[in-house]
Design goal:
By secondary structure, the protein is of the alpha/beta class. It has 9 helices and 13 strands. The radius of gyration is 17 Å and the shape is globular. The relative contact order is 0.14. The mean pLDDT is 95.
Length: 237
């Protein structure tokens, strides 16, 4: 299974997951035009789109994808928060935490995440074609799940507490929201140490903050928290 980031920041998020049989879009938080361009104008090849929550940097292009005829998957809470029309809702497939379903050759188990949204979800994906297991979790303060046999992990690494404390130009309201709604790098590293990553080959750091993160610093921290040999990538903004 292959994971690819097209955009990953508070300005917009969009990712691709594929095996040899099925291609899935994760998030659609950039303009439809940009989504077409970054996907190589191959939106018609996607078997569906998974949306983690209703914030625009994750769900901006939902109406356009529905018009394209793509099936969009989200929780009932996310659908309600987006205020979709009755016609749009007919094209939405509701997901529920812990309830497995499949898109093509990929089995998916949604799981609850912890964010200031209506019913946010992360996704555990397993390819029946190649056996790979991928966990995807963004915009979450922490995680309480363990993922046995994980091969690929795509997870939020939004900010560094020390940088945030020094970032006086940010309004206090924004600083508090960052701390209450996103994952701090040391929290991530502690979580990674608790996982069995013996079969993991790739870790992707998602949604780095423009003002309160540092790509090289984050990669080095994560490298010290996980077994050697795992490729660590900070996804492009």
């Amino acid at each position: 299974m292959r994971f690819e980031a097209m955009a990953s920041s508070s300005h917009g998020n969009a990712y691709m997951v594929s095996d040899k049989e099925t291609r899935i879009l994760l998030e659609c938080g950039i303009s439809h035009k940009k989504l077409q361009k970054l996907s190589g104008f191959r939106l018609s090849e996607f078997a569906g789109c998974l949306v983690s929550h209703e914030h625009k940097d994750h769900a901006l292009s939902v109406p356009e994808l529905i018009k394209d005829g793509m099936t969009v998957y989200m929780s009932e809470g996310t659908a309600a928060a987006l205020g979709l029309s009755d016609t749009e809702l007919e094209a939405v497939e509701a997901m529920e935490s812990g309830k497995q379903f499949s898109i093509g050759s990929i089995d998916i188990v949604p799981f609850s995440t912890f964010h200031d949204a209506a019913e946010p979800l992360g996704f555990l994906l397993k390819s029946r074609e190649d056996g790979d297991i991928l966990a995807f979790a963004t915009d979450t303060v922490n995680l309480r799940y363990r993922f046995p046999g994980l091969n690929i992990l795509a997870i939020e690494a939004n900010y560094d507490k020390a940088i945030l404390e020094r970032c006086e130009r940010l309004p206090e309201k924004v600083r508090k929201r960052i701390g209450n709604a996103h994952m701090e790098i040391d929290t991530l590293c502690d979580y990674l140490r608790s996982l069995d990553l013996s079969q993991c080959r790739e870790i992707y750091l998602l949604h780095l903050s423009d003002a309160t993160s540092h790509e090289g610093h984050f990669i080095n921290k994560v490298a010290r928290a996980v077994p050697r040999g795992i490729e660590i990538t900070a996804c492009r903004k």
